[in-house]
Design brief:
Helix content: under 10%
Structural class: mainly beta
Largest sheet: 14 strands, antiparallel
Strand content: over 45%
Order of helices and strands: EEEEEEEEEEHHHEEEE
Distance between the termini: 13 Å
Number of helices: 3
Shape: globular
């Protein structure tokens, strides 16, 4: 996987590790995998640890920041809610409504619903979860049609509602996702190989 949002990053998978390197081939981060699931991610002096339920769904993320606490709740393969806190800020994803499920492939944007759960510094650290959601237990065929995102900072609450529409290719895979909130419409296109 190569991403060119802020430079180029390469992910190299070898046994129980995924090494993320920058365009100059310097190591950026290391993903430690055990039994097919991400257990620890190290980026510089920051580390992230992950816990899973008996269905191998990520349920907890903790980093070496003392106030960092992130919890996800699942009902089988449907994310029900997630909550995160970091310093003086809190995030909650809730009221997730699902429509149909995809016949082939999976919902490739589940990491977006858990965006603050992972607390990454920038998007290039989580881009691998689009292609390999199974390493953090977020691989699901369930398709959300809307959810509510709440951000609380300094006791000020801000809610945003997101809605999704889907298009499928002839083989039954998701080819396009339209995401709407009150301000933006974002289009995602996917090619499955």
């Amino acid at each position: 996987i190569t991403e060119e949002i802020i430079g180029t990053y390469q992910y190299t998978w070898s046994n129980d590790r995924i090494i993320m390197t920058e365009s100059d081939n310097s190591e950026y981060g290391t993903f430690i995998i055990y039994d097919g699931l991400l257990q620890k991610l190290t980026i510089g002096s920051t580390y992230h640890n992950y816990s899973y339920n008996t269905s191998n769904r990520v349920i907890r993320h903790k980093s070496n920041f003392p106030s960092d606490n992130n919890i996800a709740t699942w009902d089988e393969d449907k994310l029900i809610s997630s909550s995160s806190s970091f310093k003086d800020e809190e995030w909650t994803i809730s009221n997730i409504t699902y429509g149909k499920s995809c016949k082939k492939g999976y919902f490739p944007l589940m990491h977006d619903l858990l965006v603050d759960f992972f607390n990454f510094e920038s998007s290039h650290e989580e881009i691998i979860f689009i292609a390999h959601p199974e390493i953090v237990g977020i691989h699901t065929t369930q398709l959300p049609i809307n959810y509510t995102y709440t951000n609380i900072f300094n006791n000020n609450e801000h809610k945003t509602n997101y809605e999704y529409e889907y298009e499928f290719n002839n083989a039954g895979y998701i080819s396009k996702i339209t995401e709407r909130d009150r301000t933006y419409i974002t289009y995602y296109s996917f090619t499955w190989k």
